[in-house]
Description:
Elements: H1 9-19, H2 27-31, H3 33-45, H4 57-62, H5 65-68, H6 73-83, H7 101-114, E1 119-121, E2 134-136, H8 138-142, H9 150-164, H10 167-181, E3 186-190, E4 196-200, H11 203-219, E5 223-230, E6 234-238, H12 240-245, E7 259-263, E8 270-276, H13 285-297, E9 305-311, H14 317-322, E10 330-334, E11 341-344
Amino acid sequence: MTLPPLLSWQDIHARLPVIFPEGSANRDHSIWEISARTIFVMLYAGAIEGAERWIRPDQVTRMTTFQAQQDDGAARLAWAEASIRPSKADVPGRWYAVNTRESIRDDTIRYALIQNGAVIERPGLATTSPAGRYALQADFAALLAPDLDEAAFIARAAAWREKHLNPGALARIAIVRKGAAGGGEYELVTFPNGETRRMSMGPSADISKAVIEVFAPRFLRKPGVIALSESGNKVVARDDELAKAIGLTIPADKSLPDIVLVDLGPTHPLIVFVEVVHTDGPVNEARKAALLQISEGAGFPSQHVAFVTAYLDRAGQPFRKTVSSLAWGTYAWFASEPDRLIAFSAKPLPIAGA
């Protein structure tokens, strides 16, 4: 059989961040070195959709740098046929230890490359079968042709995403790209009552805009904006009349969060304190306690107060950096997945027999 031209795993590694831009599902595991080496082994063995050749994860562990340099067709086919057979023989210079095959199978192949449409799974194969199971999706494999120049590669990668990623994934990528780009002097934020305000452009402003224009109408019955601030505690908007109408006294100091929302739908209005996190500053236990002091001092008991930390994307570094410090009894919301909330429940689960 004719094997596809071979791109080095290092060159594959360099192309993956372009194919899977910020916002892609499980991006870290789609673009890391293990992913590049796994894809290389599939190319090396000719495991591409339509060729009826498949690999097992342990073949990735059995590849060596010396073998990867043997790029003629006969050597590649011989290795593919030999390495697919189960063996306990030692492999000097192997890329990965034997016990990493489960991690390669789950973290890299199943939950990253398959989820993002780059790898397909052999249909009708029993779970316990030792036969090869995974191959590259044909159009994805075409993105790894060695003769593609940069412009052609970028264009083909964009076309591949449009064809093979679902609308939700594409929307998430677009939102994250917009939030990371910035530019210009200001952007216009439209409040629930139709009023507009200017905010300085930047990632934090993009998240704030999404909170007011997207989060508020999705999760509050009758939303209003009491206060909106930019980084540096610059007040963009402050509605003292609305605050007084519901009995809330807004302190004049800098203790308020980035956004204060109110839901006028319930009989007793709900106050929502929102912290916008581009780098730091989530609703941790200390911040929650300080905000509760403000709300309770204004006559709002804790059951009528909610706390939200807003991020651009769940896969981004700001969330990974701060998630362990988020207070119990608060929520996390992501502009790239606007219909979902993560609740950090403070209530213990019931235990049978307790």
